Every structure is written in C-alpha cells, then in structure tokens.
Amino acid sequence: MGLLVLLLGLVFASMYVYRYFFITQLPRESVFHCGVLYEDSLYSPFKGQLELHEDVKIYIEENYEQINVPVPQFGGSDPADIIHDFQRGLTAYHDITLDKCYVIELNTTIVMPPRNLWELLVNVKKGTYLPQTYIIQEEMIATEHVSDMEQLGSFIYRLCSGKETYRLRRRGARRRISRREAGNCNRIRHFENTFVVETVICQKS
Fold first, then answer.
1. Going edge to edge, which strands form the sheet with 100-105?
2. Among 10, 62, 103, 187, which is most buried by a count of CB atoms within 10 Å?
3. How much is the average pLDDT of 144-166?
4. CB under 8 Å to 38, separation ≥6 — which residues?
C-alpha cells in the first residue's frame, strides 16, 4: 500500500512539473523576433541578398500562430498581421496599408503547424537569422465580402473585426508574375517555414 501511494505521488508530481514548465516557460519561449536572408532573382536581381523581419507568436495549446510583418526595408511589400488558425483551418491576412482583411483556407503545405514552427525557431535561436533561403509566390483573388465575422473563429474575429473582410480564392500555379503584370494587386512577404512566401492578393477586375 505504501509503495502504491509513493508511485501515485511520483505520477502527480511529474504531471505538476510538466504542466508548470509548459505553462510558465513556454509562453516566454513562444515569442520570436525573426529575420531571414534570401535572394529574389525576379524583382531584385542586382541587389543580392534581401532581408525580411517578422515577429512570431506561437500558441501551441490553442493551435494557432500570429505573425506581424513590419514595413519591409526593400519596399514593394505591405506590412501585415497574419493569423494561421489550425483549429478552424483558416488563414487571415490583415493588410495594414489597405486596412483590409482577407481570409482563405489554411495551406498546410506552406505553413508549419505551431509545434513544428516552434521547434524550428528554437533550433535557430542561437543565431539572428535563419539560413539563407529562397522565395516562392502564391497568387490569390479577392472574392465575396464576409459579413458574418463570428464564423471565422475568435482569433480571426479579433484581428479583422471592424475591417472590410473578403474571402480569397487561389489561382492555379503558374510562373511568378512581375510588378508590371500585377495590376491591382498587393504583396505580403512572410515566412512560416524554411522559405519566404510572397502572397499576392489581387482585386477582381
């Protein structure tokens, strides 16, 4: 009987230490100021390496990520706040320049889940930058206006409430479009993986 009480005590102690560590330590470790160096042969073939910064907040228990992209130094891209909600399977972009929100299904081939992204950023935290990487482009078209914001979940609701919000539809894969071809489009450059993503959001013509 005494051995059983001792074993139960060890189990509860282990549970307490585990929860204490993750509740008190993980939130501090889940806020990252990140930078990445990359090359863009289409837009900046003569500038060499470009630099992109963002602040990343990872909420593992709630299963979502929040990213803030400040005004980039190189220009040509908008500052933005981004939510990746893995519970709802949605991504929301708040284009700060336009003060508009855009919502689309979460692309899990591009966006790492919170635990995986946390592990990646912890592993590179010893240095200021991620290893030199590359850029890919995804092109989207704004479609219908979203009137019922609550259907988007509480995280995206807090980001987009009071702002014009539109659904997005992905265009089929094709070569990267140049600025001259872009027309009425805005760009947001960000990273939630080992590469940079340029999200091009175009208005319906």
1. 129-133, 31-39, 49-59, 64-69, 80-85, 90-95, 100-105, 164-170, 135-145, 196-202, 185-190
2. 103
3. 96
4. 49, 50, 52, 132, 133, 134, 135, 195, 196
Q: What is the largest CA-CA distance in the chain?
A: 79
Rounded to whole angstroms, the Cα distance separating 200 from 76 reads 11
Count of residues for the chain?
205
Tell me the per-residue pLDDT of 66-120, one tens digit each, with 9 for 90 and over: 999 998 877 679 999 999 999 999 999 999 999 999 999 999 999 999 999 998 9
Dig out the tokens for 203 from the structure: 């208005």
List, as one string, the DSSP characters of the chain: -HHHHHHHHHHHHHHHHHHHHHHHTHHHHTEEEEEEEEE-TTT-TTS-EEEEEEEEEEETTTTEEEEEE---SS-SS--EEEEEETTTTEEEEEETTTTEEEEEE--TTTSPPHHHHHHHHHHTTTSSEEEEE-EEEEEEEEEEEP--GGGG-HHHHHHHTTSEEEEEEEPPP-SPPPHHHH-SEEEEEE-SSSSEEEEEEE---
pLDDT of residue 173: 54
Backbone angles phi, psi at 7, to 5 degrees: -65, -45
Residues 6 or more apart in contact with residue 112 via CB below 8 angstroms: 120, 192, 193
Question: pTM of this prediction?
Answer: 0.80
Give me the residue label for tokens 């992109």. 52
